[in-house]
Write a structure and sequence with these properties.
The chain has helices spanning about 100-105, 175-180, 180-185, 245-250, 265-280, 355-360; strands at about 25-30, 40-50, 55-60, 65-70, 95, 110, 115-120, 125-140, 140-155, 165, 185-190, 200-205, 215, 230, 230-235, 240, 255, 265, 285, 295-300, 310-315, 320, 330, 340, 345, 355, 365-370, 375. By secondary structure, it is mainly beta. The longest helix is centred in the last third of the chain and has 14 residues, at about 265-280. The radius of gyration is 21 Å and the shape is globular.
Amino acid sequence: MPPSPAIAFPPIYFPPAAAPSEGPSVTIPDVPGTSGFNITEFVVVVGFGTPSQPSALLFDTGSDLSWVQCQPCTGHCYQQNDPLFDPTKSSTYDVVRCGTPECSAAGGMCNGTTCLYNVNYGDGSSTSGALSQETLTFSSSRKFSSFPFGCGTTNLGDFGSVNGLLGLGRGQLSLASQTASSFDGTFSYCLPSHNMTRPGFLSIGAAPDIGKVQYTAMIKKPQYPSFYFVELVSIDIGGYVLPVPPSVFTSKGTLLDSGTTFTYIPAQAYNLLRDRFKFTMKGYKPAPPFQDLDTCYDFSGQSVIFQPGMSFKFSDGAVFDIDIFGVMIYPYVDHPAIGCFAFASSDPTDQFSIIGNTQQRSAEVIYDVVAEKIGFVPLSC
């Protein structure tokens, strides 16, 4: 989708939130991919190699293997903002050999003694090349040696202009798994709101205990071992709880994903949610649909917008209150006053519902993989 500009209305001020502690963790800033990278995911800058070569990577909880575009690009490389990673300029680069556990985790493909990788994503994009290992730098004092990653020489699809991807899934090759022994198997992120009043962050390691976190169980699905599922049972919009049984959500399950822009729920629930949203917004001028989003409004001339609050409730009683900027998205650069309800109906053939990154904005989302729980701390960035 086109970049989403900052909302063209007076920003709402929230009091500063406590920053993550330094403790057993490392924290780096994150920014929306719409800020110069032409994607709707979120981006962090890390370093690969010795000396470190900066790489802007989208981070994705639905992917395991991290990768960057590499020289020489023998297949296809899309245009990125930075130079391609050059293994010949690093003293710590090496390929992963065939027969190793890392090669097996990547699928076991080989070219001679060099392990190969190939990853295909749900939107049809893909990356392939040599499975490699390198020093990954998060800060001057935090480096991860022999980090497995894909040195991509054939990369197809829409990745904007980032250098590659940082995988935070549950699989063996993900950053979360590779750093588990040093950082307690925990990571968190805060995706900044559309108004960008405070910076976002990605933290690897234990989050501070600030007493405001709402934890819900991290659900496993054997058929999707790398994904993080939660058990959503109801949605509250403006104090109105959708009158649908929990089984509407639980029968297929709900994926929490940083790499999906919108939230997709079953049609039975979505229709009721959309109708209730329309009821609360009936004083505003409707606008044409945008892609999957069928409920849009033209707020031209409006200095203040009143919209309903929303929250997700999970089977164990945990509640995730959605930020005001997580309810709507403003997708047009040339028409910044047009906003759309950032929810959509899932296809009947879809395997699960998805809570996308728009709804996660401004909250710190904590993934405690060892304890198998996910926490939410509203208004953290």
